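Q: Hi! First time doing this. I have a protein sequence and I read that you can turn it into a structure. Is that right? Here it is:
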Amino acid sequence: MIAPSSSHPDLHLEAVTEAVHNISLFTRGDFTTFVVPNTVFGIASALSNRLMSGNTSHVSTVVKRLPLIIFFNWSNLLIFVLANQRLPESVKEDKLNKPWRPIPSGRMTQRQTRHLLILLMPVILLLNYALGVWKETALLFSLTWVYNDLRGGDDNWLVRNLVIALAFFYYNLGSLKLAMGVSNIDMDQTLSNAAYAWTVAMSAIIATTMHVQDLQDQAGDIAGGRQTAPLAIGDAAARWTIAVPGDEEARQR
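A: Yes, that's right. Below is the predicted 3D structure, encoded as structure tokens:
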């Protein structure tokens, strides 16, 4: 193997391209379920005049903040998936469900992933500090630790739903703050009570429906040793916990 040097710039470019591709593979499977809905929440909520007292956001102003919102969500998602996919039980599960991910495909080792996680955590925290959403980032780091290293959601699906709902609360809150131009650094800028109530309401929806995604991953969850709703109460019962509230809501309209 030829060591990268100044006389081999193509090797440097190849290494950077490979690293970017690997990072994209880590987040690819969760981008549409985390980054997209949280970003939409922040943008749509910011355009509601009632969400922040005395402040009306113009559409063009909010749209200009879109890259910042996407970065906040994606960077915190990256920390979560690095922490999650390096675990032995996750590797076992990914070999069944998502063999294209960097670790099961052999593109990276668990050790390399852990080193990348250690490197990126302070970088991402500092970058989100500059954006004014460091509190949300720090709390998301804590929830990542609870969920992955402490396996906070493995033994009880209700606890798992609660942890995920809390995570979505901080994802959505950070997205809304960025969309509104509210910073954790400037204490004179605050969101209204309505903004917090709306964010809590969205998290409540997540808490009561999040287990719908476990219906299709039961083989992997068995391999990973998790007690998700379909495995704990049965597939049919898990489906009814989602269908019945929705049917009741439809009848009330």
